[in-house]
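Inverse folding, one chain.
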């Protein structure tokens, strides 16, 4: 399996969720299965089937997180010298050349991405257009809505 890039914050969040899944969710669903079994006939026991389905979901998440964390390449951007170059983990202030709108994105791993919080995946069209460019550069990002001309105003290591 190839290395999975994660920011330090993303790896910490994944570890916390994994801990919750193992220490809280897994025991809770095991208890729910045991209680549902005590009610008798399992063929028509909706609680039993719902708990088993939830158990499958929890076990899949645990397996997924264990795999990703064991193959993670954790990048702490604060330890990398600031050169003005866009790399994984930086926060980028952009100006849309057409609208003048200012955008701020942090380039993160696929599992950390949340556009509502300004976290974009390193594999997204905008991040791919920005990687290896410098402050002051204007890039063209091919997004589903069409091409966007974006100027890199500032690159921050936060």
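Residues assigned per position:
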């Amino acid at each position: 399996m190839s290395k999975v890039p994660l920011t330090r914050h993303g790896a910490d969040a994944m570890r916390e969720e994994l801990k919750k899944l193992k220490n809280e969710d897994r025991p809770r669903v095991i208890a729910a299965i045991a209680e549902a079994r005590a009610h008798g006939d399992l063929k028509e026991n909706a609680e039993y089937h719902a708990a088993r389905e939830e158990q499958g979901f929890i076990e899949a998440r645990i397996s997924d997180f264990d795999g990703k964390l064991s193959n993670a390449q954790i990048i702490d951007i604060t330890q990398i010298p600031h050169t003005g170059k866009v790399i994984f983990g930086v926060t980028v202030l952009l100006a849309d050349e057409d609208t003048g709108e200012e955008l701020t994105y942090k380039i993160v791993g696929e599992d950390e991405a949340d556009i509502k919080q300004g976290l974009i995946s390193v594999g997204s069209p905008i991040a791919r257009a920005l990687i290896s460019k410098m402050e002051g550069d204007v890039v063209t990002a091919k997004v589903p809505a069409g091409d966007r001309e974006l100027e890199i105003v500032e690159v921050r290591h936060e």
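The chain has three helices and seven strands. The chain has a mean pLDDT of 91.
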